[in-house]
Write a structure and sequence with these properties.
13 helices; 72% helix
Length: 279
């Protein structure tokens, strides 16, 4: 397994575009720390974001994971290009000629997906610890360790989404079209959701009971937006409406199960396509 991963990482690092994207991704991730110095004025209320509790334990796990997940498209480009380049430069055929089986080839790609997801997760975990201990009002171990399920949700989200990208890279062979198809699939899910809402279901709960099984929707359900948990947001909401909205921000086991199901489907489909395709 170490040999397979080493082969893939060498390919990526020798590709200048991939190398720049990977470095840029982790540099941009580190910019989350600069949020601490941002000041905002809303409805006459002036405040610094770091003072609103977003870097408090355990909330920081939710906030940082959600912000970081929005940047996953940088690595998505790398994953799709990684596969598309195999066809463009003929390295896939050469690897097979050199004795690498199709099963080992797919394993090497999946290992790369896991490696990128793990590296990103560890990066966010360490950065959250540093920011949390720097700004949080609560640093007791029992509080610090609460909310780590958001880090798990972040990791599973990345693995699932990158597996989807890998599947599209193998299916379509061209990175631009594969990346475009991600957007097309997102639109398809939203159109289907709209049709179900207007023609079939009368409540959001009933609608969500079906749409939660859509691939991209299930991934987004892992980490619910944390903005409405801001102290400043709640203060403004209380002034405007006099009440606070109740929202479920938890990472649920059944959502994890759905996403893992799609992850297995994407990876198995990738292998089946490659196995049957005449290279």
């Amino acid at each position: 397994m170490k040999r397979l991963l080493s082969i893939e990482l060498q390919k990526l690092w020798q590709n200048r575009a991939s190398r720049i994207l990977i470095i840029s991704y982790f540099v941009i991730l580190s910019f989350i720390a600069f949020i601490a110095s941002i000041r905002i004025n809303i409805l006459g209320m002036d405040f610094r974001i770091a003072d609103q509790g977003i870097f408090n334990f355990p909330y920081i796990w939710h906030f940082n994971s959600y912000v970081a997940i929005l940047l996953k498209y940088f690595l998505a480009i790398v994953i799709v290009s990684m596969m598309a380049n195999e066809y463009t430069y003929g390295t896939l055929k050469q690897n097979l000629i050199d004795g690498l089986s199709k099963e080992e080839f797919i394993k090497s790609k999946i290992l790369t997906v896991l490696a990128f997801s793990a590296a990103s997760t560890i990066f966010i975990f360490v950065m959250s610890l540093i920011l949390g201990y720097s700004f949080s009002s609560f640093t007791e171990p029992s509080i610090v360790l609460t909310g780590l399920e958001y880090i798990l949700g972040y990791f599973i989200n990345l693995v699932a989404f990158f597996s989807f990208c890998l599947f599209l890279g193998i299916l379509i062979k061209r990175s631009a079209f594969a990346l475009g198809f991600i957007f097309v699939w997102f639109i398809i899910e939203k159109i289907a959701e709209g049709l179900l809402w207007s023609k079939v279901f009368e409540t959001k709960e009933a609608l969500n009971s079906v749409t939660q099984f859509f691939p991209l929707e299930s991934m987004s359900n892992l980490l619910i937006e944390p903005v409405t948990r801001f102290k400043a947001y709640k203060a403004i909401e209380g002034q405007v409406s006099g009440a606070h909205a109740v929202k479920d921000y938890a990472v649920h086991w059944y959502t994890i199960g759905i996403v893992l199901f799609w992850t297995v489907i994407f990876n198995l489909s990738s292998y089946k396509i490659l196995k049957r395709r005449d290279l």
